[in-house]
Amino acid sequence: MTDSSRPAVEAVGLHRRYGPADGAGFDAVRGLDLTVHRGELFALLGTNGAGKTSTMELLEGLAAPTAGGIRVLGHDPYRERAAVRPRIGIMLQESGFPGELTVAEAVRCWVGLTSRARPADEALDLVGLLDRRTVRVKQLSGGERRRLDLAVALLGRPELLFLDEPSTGLDPEARAAVWQLVRELRAQGTTVLLTTHYLEEAEELADRLLIMHRGRAVVSGTVAEVIAGRPSRISFELPERSGPYGDLTLPPLPAAEVTATGRRVTVRTTRLQETLTDLLGWAARHQVALGALDARSASLEEAFLAIAAEAAGAAPLPIGDPR
Ligand SMILES: Nc1ncnc2c1ncn2[C@@H]1O[C@H](COP(=O)(O)OP(=O)(O)OP(=O)(O)O)[C@@H](O)[C@H]1O
């Protein structure tokens, strides 16, 4: 297989242990398989401490796996770092720049260390920081620092971009701008591997995703594949049981599970249209007004919460449960 026809990232049986090999050590990554195809945007999701950053560091070549094999752009990213590094861009969770440098100076420092670097101003323009070029790094807001980190990651026009929680700390407008930039980079053929705690971000951007829990892959696929089979939800409030309605009994709703707290009813169903039709037909026949009626398909967030709870061995929390 030629270099360009291989996946951008292939990891098989990846393990990462912190500390000694005996029982005192900690296995942060436990037998992970992962493939990122060229030109796709792949999101690595998981609960806190699932092992996302530990995995990203292995793929970035910043640490060697305890066991397992990794090929990044056809090379071992740790042993053949010199071959891989010029072709990848890394946006770390925190890449401390000296606070006294101006934004332009900080980027120019990196230009000197980067092969085939874009001009500093071009990278700053990409992330919307050109007008902040003379400001000192210590005076930037948290969101502006994230964008500076991204500018540096983009300096070398990377084929493969690693983004570790790229939009943490960004306001909604800056987040939308980063999403747009990531979409444009992908449209130009850049492969992107990102971690995020924002499920909406993964839903918006990811071609495929993998959810980790305690060092292992729990589920992977496209957003649609991960959501498939997860129940949709209908919720509404029944009117007071006294008065003209008398005692109300819901109709039989096949493939649905009904829970009620007082007058508030939640229906989980794998056949949203059919269940909603049954319910609305029943309400019309009995002239029942369903208060605050809401019907929605399963979202990645709901699927993630359910998958994480299942992986932790607990029953999934009811959707909307404030606990
Ligand atoms: N240097 C280290 N020494 C020992 N344990 C570590 C070290 N770094 C991370 N860990 C542990 O490994 C596990 C995975 O951490 P990691 O940072 O990879 O998770 P994560 O999925 O990125 O978490 P988060 O979403 O909170 O950033 C955690 O339990 C963490 O405490």
UniProtKB/TrEMBL annotation:
The keyword Zinc does not apply. It is a peripheral membrane protein. SUPFAM superfamilies: P-loop containing nucleoside triphosphate hydrolases. This is ABC-2 type transport system ATP-binding protein. Residues 9-239 form the ABC transporter domain. Pfam families: ABC_tran. Keywords: Antibiotic resistance, ATP-binding, Nucleotide-binding, Transport. It comes from Kitasatospora paracochleata. SMART domains: AAA. It is found in: Cell membrane. GO terms for molecular function: ATP binding. Gene3D superfamilies: P-loop containing nucleotide triphosphate hydrolases (3.40.50.300). The keyword Glycosyltransferase does not apply. InterPro entries: AAA+_ATPase, ABC_transporter-like_ATP-bd, ABC_transporter-like_CS, ABC_transporter_ATP-binding, P-loop_NTPase.
